[in-house]
Amino acid sequence: MPTLDSREPDDARALRVAHDGLILLALVGSTVHGLDLGGHDDRDELGVTIEPPEHLLGTRRFEHLVWRTQGPGRPSGAGDVDLTVYGLRRYCMLARKGSLTVLLPLFAEGDALIHVTPAGRELRTIAPWFATRRAGRALLGYLAAQRRRIADPGQVRERERVGDGYDGKYAMHALRIALQGEELLRTGRISLPVPEPWRGRIMAVRRGEVAAADALAAVDEAAARLESQLAVARVPEETDDERLNAWLARMYRDEWDRRDR
Prior knowledge:
The chain is α+β, with helices and mostly antiparallel strands and 261 residues long.
């Protein structure tokens, strides 16, 4: 976490809320997937905080904190930190929509799990609640958006251009989303880092060691597998909001009572 005096008063206040109630912080991004290029990627961290009552119920809401080494408007480079911390309620609202990035702290292990409290461990136990058909459809949408960018001359980013002119990072993420989405729907979990032999195949695509046509074909095959898994997955249509609401209310009450003691 950055120091509390590293920003202006409003930012320092948000940092304090994020810092004081932090229950979970984990590495996300290419590194936690095992798909980084070894020292060339920035460091993405994502956390969850239980905000105090006045920042959940009052006029001064805390939804999330974004803190970047480079500050606003400047791209992150190798070694830079991009930190996002969500309030617990906001975090769960995003998780129920099927964002894989948001879900990653629930599955991070080892050095990738930077900080976890008993409340954070309890949050990790409800990860299967977010494996739903709604999440599966959202993942298919994310995958399709990445697929459209892979070889589109107007979308390929020069710094990510590989092989015969496709965007290696878009292709990598498309394959990863399909693989992890299929696993989430099948098991309620995500394996981190990406297991072999998939990791090696995805890294070959990221480095441009396969032709653009073959990369696109691999993405299409992976998307078809995800769609097939969605068709047969024994998961609910939506997250059980009644159960989630009761859990959130208890978590906030317990944490606020603990702080008052």
